[in-house]
Structures are given as structure tokens and as C-alpha cells.
Write a structure and sequence with these properties.
The protein is mainly alpha-helical and 226 residues long. It has six helices and four strands; from the N terminus they run ααααββαββα.
Length: 226
Amino acid sequence: MEEKPNHKADQKIGKVFLVFAGICIVALPLVVFSAITYAPKEIIATVLETASFDFDHNGKTIFEKYDLISDAYLKSTSTGRTLSQYYSRRQYPGSPPEIPHPVEAHGITLGCLTCHASGGWTESLKKITPVTPHADLESCMQCHVRPVTDTLFRAIDWRSIPPPRLGRSHLPGAPVPIPHDLQMRGNCIACHVGPGTVAAIRVEHPSRGNCRQCHVPDLQVEPFRR
């Protein structure tokens, strides 16, 4: 027996096609009209600005810190701290110094900046407190630790590197170069001005605020050649 053709299915497909064609015919003039009358708006490109690095290693911060220091502190004399004592609290020159006194925690925070943010006399220790060059960093014990023993749990043959030599001016009477990196040590007045500083590295002109107007880092190992 021959199979009869399904005319109803063909009619259904035909109706769908006619509906789709009708929609296209109606929408075509609208698409053409929109394309003719379209006026592109000005495209504003968002440019990501590159990180702004202070050419003077946050020199503006030095002036702000300088303005907060009293004239009496700037003109006061240094204590009896020596360079040997200064380096004895560090594993190597430039490393974070150890904490030489007991530390009390207040909840989850420490009171380090209470004394080390601005310095001054500490009655409990009977000493002048040195100023930290990075008082904006509050997690002090992330780098500074309190020694709990004088012995090593394991013998090692590690030795520190020699500290930088002071002076080294290129000309007689010229400003001395900065013998260390400026990372986290860019606030010059913290270590070179005031009674908490080491006498050997205390500046003779603390009233001048912008130290790096004359003093520049001297980290070049090889001599410059054209």
C-alpha cells in the first residue's frame, strides 16, 4: 500500500515560514531607517593610569613629618647610642632591628607606635625612644621580633656583611651620599635628627627639611662611563 502524504504537516511548516517572512518584511524598513538615522555617540575610553611613583621617594611625606616635629626636638642632643650598638640589634645592615624590651599586647594590637611614632623619653626604660621611619605601618611585629634566647637552636656559619662606610663625599665639603636603600627608610629625620638618633650619624643642620635636595643614594657599584 502506498503511504499517503501528510498534507497537514506541510501546511504547518508553510504557515511558520510565512509568519517568519512577514516579520522580516515588517522589521526590514525599521532596520534600514535605524541604520540611516543612527548617530554614533562619542566613545570615552577609560585609560588606566600607571602607578604614580614619587620622583623623590615620597619626599612630600618628609615635609609633612618635619612640620609635626617640635623645634626643641630638632635642636636636642643625641644620646649615648653608638653605631656598634645600632648594628648589634640587626642581623645585617638594613635589616629590621630586634625589640630590646618586653612587649605587651593590647588585644590584637600592639602599642609600639605610642612611643616610636614621635619618640621622646620613656620613664619605664629610662631611655630616649628612637623614632621609626615608617610610622604608617602598624603591623610592627611582622618584621621586628623580641629575642627569647641568646643561643642558636642549630649552629650555622652565616656572617653579616660589613656596614657601609660613613662619609665618602666625592669632593671636599660636598654633601655625603646616602649609603643605603630608601625602601621603608625614606624618612631621613627619623634616624638622623633628634635625641633618639646615633650621635655618629646625626646631621649638623636639622632645620633643613628636604634632605635629598643635596644628598642622593649612592648605590652604583661600577663607576659611570660614557
